[in-house]
Amino acid sequence: MLNKFISRIHDIYYPIRRKIIDFVSPIYYRFFGHKFHIVKTGLRPQAWHDSDVRILYAVMSIVKWFVENDMQKTSETDYLREYIRIIHDNNMEGEAQGWVNQYRRQKEIEEIALWWNNYDNRLKEIDDSLTKWSQCGVMDNLHNGVFPINNLPEDKRKIERELSAIHSQLGENLHQEEQEMLKKAIELREYMWS
Questions:
Q1: Do 110 and 170 reside in the same domain of the chain?
Q2: Same domain for 184 and 107?
Q3: Are residues 13 and 89 located together in one domain of the fold?
Q4: Which of 50, 75, 103, 175 is deepest in the core (most CB within 10 A)?
Q5: DSSP characters over 57-123
Q6: What is the C-alpha separation between 93 and 98, in angstroms, rounded?
Q7: If you ran DSSP here, which 8-state letter would residue 152 be given?
Q8: Using alpha carbons only, what angle is made at residue 29 by residues 71 and 24, rounded to the nearest 5 degrees?
Q9: Under DSSP, is residue 188 helix (H, G, I), strand (E, B) or coil?
Q10: What own/partner pairs with CB < 8 Å and gap ≥ 24 does 88-93 have?
């Protein structure tokens, strides 16, 4: 009889409690609580950012936040000590392999965050290469309406082509790295929990 009564209370209490929480929770977290539902990309406020840029910055800022705030890092010394303990004490090869995989994934996630921390330097390098290209005399005759390369002597054309190729290669290399790191972040997504 008592169990039936308690069961009936549970059947009434928990659905009502869930409805109240579902109603109050979004209001509370919008104004007072932690804002984990919002991704701070770190992009500079401006009129427009393309979707591909917003996706890159959102994913990478989440990875960076995870590494800096939420990741439980294991030092190499602790990793080796635990690996030896697992092998000697338990003699469980499967558990040891799981430990090795966990440490490897930790290092891969840290590698993504490290690459992201250096991302602004790479953008500056590309911007500097564009500045060097524009200073080689290409832009001198732009105000005449003539494409500037046509008015350059052959030695300056050669320099212009080299600087243009360097700029293009830097941009292409960075784009390939972005793709690799985004893919890696998505593949490692399920291991980014605390």
A1: yes
A2: yes
A3: no
A4: 103
A5: HHHHHHHHHIIIII-----HHHHHHHHHHIIIII--HHHHHHHHHHHHHHHHHHHHHHHHHTHHHHH
A6: 9
A7: S
A8: 130
A9: coil
A10: none
Cβ distance 43 to 57 under 8 Å?
A: yes
Contacts of 114 by beta carbon, 8 Å cutoff, 6+ apart = none
| Amino acid at the residue 94 | G
Range of the domain at 155: 43-191
> Are 47 and 22 contained in the same domain?
no
**How many structural domains are present in the chain?**
2
The CA distance from 103 to 74, in Å, is 7
* CB-side neighbour CA atoms (13 Å) of 165: 6
Going from the first residue of the chain to its last (194 residues), give the mean pLDDT of each consecutive group of 10, the final group possibly shorter.
Answer: 80 87 82 79 91 95 94 89 80 80 94 96 94 73 56 74 90 96 96 86
Would you list the DSSP string of 9-75?
A: HHHHHHHHHHHHHHHHHHHHHHHTS--TTS----PPP-S---HHHHHHHHHHHHHHHIIIII-----
Sign of CA pseudo-dihedral 138, 140, 141, 142: positive
Residue whose structure tokens are 């054309």: 157
